[in-house]
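Tokens in:
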């Protein structure tokens, strides 16, 4: 999707059944799988293989709702598909429970990288909350080290086809954000790219963690904030204007500050205009947003309007296990819903790479040497 003509006063495009690439060929799911992809918003404890959950649970004696991997996978998807963010978050009780020792964390991290590489992801930032993995006696530092060991093993097995970095998350309803922020800074040259806060937004504004964000800014460190998913514009406003977030985790509710008039013309409020003008990245997760009730369906997801209006939109998975999704699944769903072609998919991917918490020269190298050539090859095939 290129050029300024699509920024006019027309309403969002209607969904289409069969998306086509620029020369008229139908874009298949396999085509999307072969495309290079960049993932900025994916939770480590939300992407386990069902078989791994079952095996690790048996080792530690944790009771699961099902022990057969296929049945367990269905349970996670059904339990998460409730329309409630609070209920959605409850599914993590089982995955977090089996990630309480070094070998388990390293295994989950390694398998995460392997799965992403097999899905065509070339760069990923994977987030998790170290404070949730200390029940087995590990220190926060040992938790990060175990995850890093797993990531490095996965990257080595992938033969250089993927780069993965950690994002350390603090839970917004707890009081350890400064501790986790300091941990992120201590590890930033050893595999940690930045910091995040997550958890239920209502009643837990990001400003409660202002000291951590001010510390990160003084340390010239990067951070993203879950905002505008289940809560509205105040959460986004605080994340940006009070806390100084580099990116917005989800940010779906920014559409509450955008008016689409009956004649199809579009009017941006002050906050929406600021987010677009400042190119603040939106880490959008369509499948997850539908599950948690932040959007009615993929076809009605605000990503269509926000893409047309040229916000800095990125496409992400959030929780691959709970949503039964992948980057291929997310992007192909958008292809089918909005008729996007290779130009659009490349635009999403470059948006994400530009927004990554990676040094500029490394971002540029991935764009010029991996992403653009990858899409060029798809267009020729």
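Residues out:
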């Amino acid at each position: 999707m290129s050029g300024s003509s699509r920024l006019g006063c027309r309403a969002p495009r209607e969904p289409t059944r069969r998306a086509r690439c620029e020369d008229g060929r139908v874009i298949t799911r396999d085509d999307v799988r072969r495309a290079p992809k960049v993932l900025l918003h994916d939770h480590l404890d939300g992407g386990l293989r069902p078989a791994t959950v079952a095996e690790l649970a048996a080792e530690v004696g944790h009771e699961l709702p099902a022990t057969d991997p296929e049945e367990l996978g269905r349970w996670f998807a059904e339990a998460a598909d409730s329309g409630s963010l609070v209920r959605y978050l409850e599914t993590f009780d089982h995955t977090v429970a089996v990630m309480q020792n070094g070998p388990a964390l390293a295994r989950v991290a390694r398998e995460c990288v392997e799965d992403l590489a097999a899905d065509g992801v070339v760069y990923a930032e994977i987030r998790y909350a170290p404070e949730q993995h200390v029940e087995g006696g590990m220190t926060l530092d040992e938790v990060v080290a175990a995850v890093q060991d797993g990531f490095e093993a996965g990257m080595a097995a992938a033969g250089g086809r993927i780069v993965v970095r950690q994002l350390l998350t603090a839970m917004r309803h707890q009081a350890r954000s400064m501790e986790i922020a300091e941990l992120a800074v201590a590890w930033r040259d050893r595999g940690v790219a930045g910091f995040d806060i997550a958890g239920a937004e209502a009643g837990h504004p990001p400003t409660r963690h202002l000291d951590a964000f001010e510390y990160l800014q003084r340390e010239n460190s990067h951070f993203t904030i879950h905002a505008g998913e289940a809560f509205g514009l105040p959460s986004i406003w605080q994340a940006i204007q009070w806390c100084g977030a580099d990116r917005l985790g989800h940010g779906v509710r920014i559409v509450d500050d955008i008016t689409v008039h009956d004649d199809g013309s579009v009017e941006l409020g002050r906050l929406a205009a600021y987010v677009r003008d400042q190119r603040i990245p939106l880490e959008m997760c369509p499948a997850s947003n539908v599950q948690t009730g932040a959007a009615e369906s993929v076809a009605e997801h605000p990503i269509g309007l926000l893409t047309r209006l040229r916000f800095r939109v990125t496409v992400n998975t959030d929780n691959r296990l709970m949503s039964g999704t992948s980057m291929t699944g997310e992007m192909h769903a958008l292809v089918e819903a909005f008729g996007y072609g290779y130009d659009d998919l490349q635009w999403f991917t470059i948006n994400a790479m530009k927004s990554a918490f990676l040094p500029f020269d490394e971002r540029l190298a991935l764009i010029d040497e991996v992403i653009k050539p990858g899409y060029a090859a798809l267009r020729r095939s």
